[in-house]
Design goal:
The complex is a heterodimer. By secondary structure, chain A is an alpha/beta fold. Chain A has helices spanning about 1-10, 25-40, 45-70, 85-95, 115-125, 155-165, 170-185, 195-215, 220-235, 240-275, 290-300, 315-325, 340-345, 370-380, 415-420, 435-440, 445, 450-460, 495-504; strands at about 280-285, 305-310, 330-335, 350, 355, 365, 385, 470-475, 480-485, 485-490. In chain A, helix 1 (about 1-10) packs across helix 6 and helix 6 packs parallel to helix 8. Chain B is an alpha/beta fold. Classes of the chains: A alpha/beta, B alpha/beta. Chain B: It is found in: Cytoplasm, Cytosol.
């Protein structure tokens, strides 16, 4: 796993050289770059100087974020910029044009038209404001380019795994993050003149978190874990020796994972497995590790039952689940969400995983979950949510619009689907910008347009937008039971347990 | 009601928990099952010579298991035993809370437990009166109340309401013609109410929907209140709930909070007891496959098989009324919405 990542880490310093279009830019970039490198080398500077440098870095980072995110227009509050930062911003933009070497998102073979896409999406996002525009305010980052130099290699690798969905799922992401933070803490050294409790959270952990957030918005569980960790660090007695403090932190993280995830999952699956009775047909949507564990546990206990997996594009998480279960000898039926109403007819219970449980008892989970639970409710099937209490949040959600995560729209269309759309090219409106562009460019490329052009059509289109939200909100009325490590609850008791689990 | 005393499986002391439980229950007609169970367990500890915390808990566990095994429907009973066990564990784990120094011996703790256990029983008895005083305000002047079964706490509530001179109300009482133990209690309540000048109509189960037009509210008792706020109650309560909901009549449950059970049924067939209600048969009286009907909405038809099966037959059977049919649960600690029950249970259990 770490192989390709390290390779990229090595590759990234070469980036400025690859921005050849503007001859002035590389020189300036180098000048700028020299400075941060100087910071890194001279750790023995005085505190005041360090502070100044930190500030400079912060500003640079802000500029970077702006360069990466075209949509920052919506964020308002544009900070004052001096000449230097503008230059850096420019050079950052150049970086973006570089072909990105490793991109494992399945739907994307090659990321050449990155810059164009960005230019166009800038225009796009202004139009998307109807319902989901606010969700685009945070730009997605799919590479390590532009990452702050403070970001730990383990975190860099993790970020790529997040954005490519290699590590997916609320709990898995949280655990992976905590493990990466362990590495961060272990290799951390408190700079002279500061204390661990103050420096680690604000100045060392924050860039890591910002980078991860750029790769993919933080999950609720990650937010909870980060809050817990920061709280823990802040409460460290300043007189504690650094080595001891670090060791304690690492131990605490291990304990947190053990108690809140490993043990919790065991309790949940033990309890949930008892709800699977002989002859049951368990329906589940997409893939949840805890549902998988529960089903396997019941299967190992010798209960005869079958499973229906309902799945949907673009991630097709259910495929893996169905395959795993079938390999264990469980009778599995696999439907796509389009066949959900049919699937529900044959089921007797619905088990769902969760991204988060909201304080109003609503379930925030993979998009499509609400549909499945509504169908189940209309067939009066019991809907059971399995959720560790670390995924409970004090937030409430009334709909899926206000808080959600948009994935890059190009993931909606798979390679094959794009290819099948290619013959439609002659029907593009003549005023279509991307068509014009193609015409302008050259006749050589015009004849042979690849599947990637399909995305450009959509992006360039005035009236057609791709929208891919990742989550939806299931009303509490559709949920019969939430199984947590504290026991079984009705969804209305989620805030009570959340209070309990955070206070004690 | 076959009493089989499992003397064989008793490695610990020679205390007959089951007969104690039965005699306590028989000795005081006002007593509910969970309270009787707690009283029996207190008695058991008093009779034993345990000297450590672990021993006490083991003894308790053993007696609880024996008691549960001897009763056909241990749901309501388990509410009491679980509660007592939980109480013991918390007090035994925190001896400091009892104002005992660390030097105090186990005997002091044990005495404290015993006295507190008795206190609990006393309090449980009083709670019925408290519920009655809360609940009577739910009955408005001129109202018609529909109720069923032989719940003593419902009886207490109605009596209390009848005693107040300012209220005139009528009662529709569902009395099944079965020979269940509830019947006697029900007859008693009806007679009492009539003596208090409250007009009472008694109807069979089949007339519930018919009478609902005349009814303003439904009040029922419960054997157990489960974690999601639903109730487990005498067979026929579920259909009353469904009908009341469909007619928009408020459906109130009166139950002491010691009836809160740590149980989460998802449907009628998800109860931890064996019920012989649905028994499919064909013409020649061979044993049809007594199966659990897989369709979820199958309301147990109690007129169908009211016959000679051992165990929990239709007369003593219970059903589960889901929380969305319940308007409120009147307990001695206040009137709760169904969703507040789980909160109360969490408070006890964590």
């Amino acid at each position: 796993m770490s192989g390709p990542v390290e390779g990229e880490a090595v590759a990234s310093p070469a980036v400025p050289a690859q921005a050849p279009n503007d001859p002035t830019a590389p020189a300036k970039t180098d000048a700028k770059d020299a400075k941060p490198e100087g910071d890194g080398a001279s750790k023995k500077m005085s505190g005041a100087e360090l502070k100044k440098l930190k500030q400079a870095e912060k500003q640079a980072k802000r500029a970077q974020a702006k360069a990466v995110g075209p949509a920052t227009v919506q964020q308002g509050g544009i900070p004052k910029e001096n000449q230097k930062q503008k230059e850096q911003k420019q050079s950052q933009k150049k970086d973006e044009s570089r072909p990105l070497p490793i991109r494992r998102r399945p739907s994307q073979s090659n990321a050449v038209p990155q810059q164009q896409a960005r230019k166009e999406s800038k225009r796009d996002q202004k139009q998307l404001g109807l319902f989901f525009g606010h969700l685009y305010s945070q730009p997605r980052q799919h590479s390590m380019v532009g990452a702050s130099k403070d970001v730990h290699p383990a975190v860099l690798a993790l970020g790529l795994q997040y954005s490519s969905y290699v590590i997916c799922g609320s709990t898995a992401r949280m655990v992976a993050m905590l493990l990466a933070f362990k590495a961060v803490i272990e290799s951390y050294q408190t700079p002279v003149g500061t204390s661990l409790a103050r420096h680690l959270t604000n100045h060392h952990l924050s860039p890591q978190i910002d980078y991860l957030r750029g790769c993919r918005p933080l999950s609720i569980s990650m937010g909870n874990a980060i809050r817990w960790l920061k709280d823990l660090i802040i409460k460290i007695d300043p007189s504690t020796p650094e080595a001891e403090a670090k060791r304690d932190l690492v131990e605490e993280i291990d304990m947190f994972i053990r108690e809140r995830v490993t043990a919790a999952q065991k309790l949940i699956r033990d309890q949930a497995a008892t709800k699977i009775l002989p002859g049951d047909v368990i329906l589940t949507y997409a893939s949840s590790s805890i549902v998988e564990q529960t089903i396997l546990q019941a299967h190992k206990a010798g209960v005869p039952f079958t499973v229906i997996v309902v799945d949907s594009k673009p991630l097709f998480e259910g495929k893996t689940l169905a395959r795993k279960l079938a390999n264990q000898g469980i009778n599995v039926r696999y439907y796509l969400i389009t066949g959900a109403s049919h699937a529900v007819k044959g089921a007797s219970k619905v088990f769902l995983g969760a991204h988060a449980m909201m304080s109003n008892g609503r379930l925030y989970s993979r998009v499509g979950t609400a549909l499945v639970s509504m169908l189940a409710r209309s067939h009066s099937l019991p809907v059971i949510v399995l959720c560790e209490s670390v995924k409970f949040t004090e937030k409430v959600a009334l709909d899926s619009i206000v808080g959600n995560e948009v994935a890059p729209a190009d993931e909606i269309l798979s390679e094959a689907e794009r290819a099948s759309l290619l013959p439609l090219e002659p029907h593009l409106p003549t005023t279509h910008p991307s068509k014009n562009k193609n015409d302008d460019k050259s006749a050589t490329e015009d004849t042979k347009s690849g599947p990637l052009d399909v995305l450009k059509w959509v992006e360039g289109s005035e009236n057609l937008h791709h929208l891919q939200v990742l989550y939806d909100v299931t009303p509490a009325e559709y949920i019969n039971m939430v199984i947590t490590e504290y026991g079984s609850l009705p969804p209305s008791s989620v805030p009570v347990v959340h209070r309990l689990s955070t206070n004690t | 009601m076959s009493v089989h005393t499992p003397t064989a499986e008793k490695p610990l002391p020679d205390f007959d928990i089951v007969s104690t439980y039965r005699s306590i229950l028989a000795g005081d007609t006002e007593l509910t099952m969970p309270v009787a169970a707690i009283e029996a367990l207190v008695e058991a500890i008093a009779h034993s010579s345990v000297s450590t915390v672990a021993e006490t808990l083991a003894l308790l566990e053993h007696h609880t298991a024996v008691l549960k095994a001897s009763i056909a429907n241990p749901i309501s009973l388990s509410a009491g035993t679980d509660l007592f066990q939980r109480y013991l564990i918390t007090t035994l784990n925190r001896p400091a809370a009892l104002n005992l120094g660390p030097g105090d011996d186990f005997r002091a703790i044990r005495n404290h437990l015993l006295s507190n256990g008795r206190l609990f029983v006393e309090r449980a008895k009083q709670s019925r009166e408290k519920i009655a005083s809360f609940g009577k305000h739910f009955i408005r002047d001129g109202a018609t109340v529909l109720t069923n079964g032989g719940s003593r706490v419902v009886g207490a509530l109605l009596r209390r309401a009848a005693e107040s001179s300012t209220m005139r109300f009528r009662v529709v009482y569902v009395l099944s013609d079965s020979k269940s133990s509830d019947l006697k209690e029900g007859d008693q309540i009806v007679a009492d109410l009539r003596a208090h000048n409250v007009p009472v109509a008694t109807i069979p189960d089949s007339a519930v929907a018919y009478s609902l037009g005349e009814v303003d509210m439904v009040i029922v008792g419960a054997e157990g209140v489960v974690e999601n706020g639903g109730i487990i109650s005498r067979l026929g309560t579920y259909q009353m709930g469904l009908l009341a909901k469909s007619k928009g009549k408020p459906f109130y449950v009166v139950a002491e909070s010691h009836k809160f059970v740590r149980l989460y049924p998802l449907s009628q067939f998800d109860l931890p007891i064996e019920q012989k209600v649905l028994e499919f048969r064909v013409a020649d009286d061979t044993k049809g496959a007594a199966s659990k009907a897989s369709e979820d909405e199958g309301i147990a038809d109690m007129n169908g098989t009211k016959a000679k099966c051992s165990g929990l037959n239709a007369d003593d059977a219970v059903d589960f009324t889901p929380p969305d049919l319940i308007s409120g649960i009147i307990t001695e600690s206040g009137v709760l919405t169904p969703s507040a029950v789980s909160e109360e249970l969490i408070k006890i259990w964590f």
